[in-house]
Amino acid sequence: MGHGSMHQSASAARTDQPLLSLRNINMTFGGVKALKNVTFEVRPGEVHCLAGENGSGKSTLIKVITGVYRPAEGAIIEYDGDVYPHMSPVTAQERGIQVIWQDLALFPEMSVAENIAFHEVLGRPRLVDYSRMRQIAIEALSRLGITLDVDLPLKEYAIAQRQIVAIARALVGEAKVVFMDEPTASLTQSETDYLLEIVRGLSASGVAVVFVSHRLAEVLEISSRITVLRDGALVGVYPADGMTQSKITELMTGKTFDQHVRARAKDDQPVVLDVRGLGSPGQFEDVSLTVRRGETVGITGLLGAGRTELALALFGMLKPTSGTFSIDGREARFASNRDAIKAGVAYLSEDRLSLGLIQPQSIADNLVIASLHKILSGGLLADDRKRSLVARWIADLGVKIGHQADAISTLSGGNQQRVAIAKWLATDPKLLILDSPTVGVDVGARAGIFDIVAKLAESGLAIILISDEVPEVYFNADRVLHMAQGRIVGIYDPHQTRLEEIEAAVYA
């Protein structure tokens, strides 16, 4: 189904009368005003974006709409011709208000059919009609133009297919408006394109979709209108036409971000990393590149291009079978990541939550874990050394914390990422590999992280910056390498190339 035909039918399905309208929405938790006199509306068949930083009130507003939270006195919720002082979860479900949360809330052990037609087993006890459940599931998937084996356990499917199962389940609930919370956070570019096509299809069939996403390029591509929240208050409602990523970012944060190409030639600097013909079967092959002192080299490409595998090889966690690489002129043969750390390589993994940081442990313990040798005194941990090391990096990177002893899980995504960077800087590396450092970090905190990257490069650190968002490497790297199917297929100088050219090559 082409984009044009969908958009025509979508506009035909729309009216200017709101399907859902909220006024005077106030919500307080423990004395803190989470929502301040917010208004919000969605039209039938509209794709509407709800934008705001973490903590701006987006999730709270969705929970008010779905009846999870009860707003303060004076709220007015109008939905499909009826007026409510507040919603209940049962009314919201019955009236076709559906939410697909980021964690999807599905049952991995159960079959696709059971996940989609789950409502069939709710209510009074009775025998489960499996053939009816299968039929409901197949029909819901066919509405999305999808065929899946509905008898397979959900856990057999990748995250992209699970998203589709969650959407199909919403359709079974006769959805009129579907809220999607960060639906593309774990998807590749091609999976994201596919999901956006499904959203267009829902819109064309008259289902309104409210899209919550940190990835602003998608927001602009898919939405007709954008509602921006900041600190629990409404900033405004804007048409997506004519809106830019930098303008949305300014509205969300209240700050101006100057997006400019930071690239500088570093040809006169000594080579820190020299990679020659490096390969690992099925992961990457014949990769050659250099990173000089003070240089930031960006590596972009679709997920599955071999970027992370290359990083793991440089960090001693994956053994290359061909080619060589050297650090400061010395050939590196790492038996483990311990050898890599000793040689001056630091690697910030993409998966901060499970690989980068230990969530229940303190901020201080997380920060010093990779550099314990520096705070040992006679074989024991010296508390004063630990405290001063932590204080130094917290101050250097501008991490907002309560106490060093607080659990790392108490920090926002952006501040957790700063601690994860500090953990590696405390090892005094020569080469820092940052693998998708802004995943799960909201738009305001991203600028701060890239300011840190720029300062580190200025201080002489060699940096590899990996991201599947081309603008991130374009604006923040000195050179951009495009990786596809395990090979480097393009090298770009941001001063000589337009952003659109690189995006066309990567996303083609």
TrEMBL record:
Residues 20-256, 263-508 form the ABC transporter domain. GO terms for molecular function: ATP binding; ATP hydrolysis activity. It comes from the Bacteria. CDD domains: ABC_Carb_Monos_I, ABC_Carb_Monos_II. Gene3D superfamilies: P-loop containing nucleotide triphosphate hydrolases. Keywords: ATP-binding, Cell membrane, Membrane, Nucleotide-binding, Repeat, Sugar transport, Translocase, Transport. PANTHER family: CARBOHYDRATE TRANSPORT ATP-BINDING PROTEIN MG119-RELATED, XYLOSE IMPORT ATP-BINDING PROTEIN XYLG. Belongs to the ABC transporter superfamily. This is ATP-binding cassette domain-containing protein. It comes from Sinorhizobium medicae. The lineage of its organism: Bacteria, Pseudomonadati, Pseudomonadota, Alphaproteobacteria, Hyphomicrobiales.
